[in-house]
């Protein structure tokens, strides 16, 4: 049971973000050509995930006070990480987004593992939904790295690695269901703060053209519909 749930969570994470990375690499020339749109698109995806997914679920799990406190802690954590990254410009933005996706996938894995305790069908359904949801998030990670001129093979590798914490979270969720279920809201809030900082500090200041705005709106709408 534990191995099965761990593998399902791992596949949901790796395939979801990995497909996003592969898509951005296949259409790399188009991404380079429409970089302003793509950066806005990735920012819209991330902000929508924070508002419609992470903070909503965190408040349902832990309440508004804990959500606000740990979201703020996530912002501070990301500010600290940024100050320690020895990269500049788009490269720094890309790695910050990569880190935020890593943090985001752990609590989603915890949710998958915990749901299997309630019912196997619920766990499988949640894993499929999260895998689909992770495709645009993998795309957001990849788009930022494309902007930093990172080679396609590395981009695909990074997006697959970004999905691994979901497998770890699934294992922890099913093995320590009672303990980690109560902490899901905390992890979600930290991830929300991390993503929020990246969007407001790294992506939005660079997204001032009309194409960036259109991309931002498109990314937001797509995540909302998913």
UniProtKB/TrEMBL annotation:
The keyword Zinc applies. InterPro entries: ZIP. It is a multi-pass membrane protein. GO terms for molecular function: zinc ion transmembrane transporter activity. It comes from the Bacteria. It is found in: Cell membrane. Keywords: Cell membrane, Membrane, Transmembrane, Transmembrane helix, Zinc. The keyword Disulfide bond does not apply. GO terms for cellular component: plasma membrane. The chain crosses the membrane at residues 6-27, 34-52, 64-81, 93-117, 123-148, 155-177, 183-200. PANTHER family: ZINC TRANSPORTER ZIP11, ZINC/IRON TRANSPORTER. Belongs to the ZIP transporter (TC 2.A.5) family. This is Zinc permease. It comes from Terrisporobacter othiniensis.
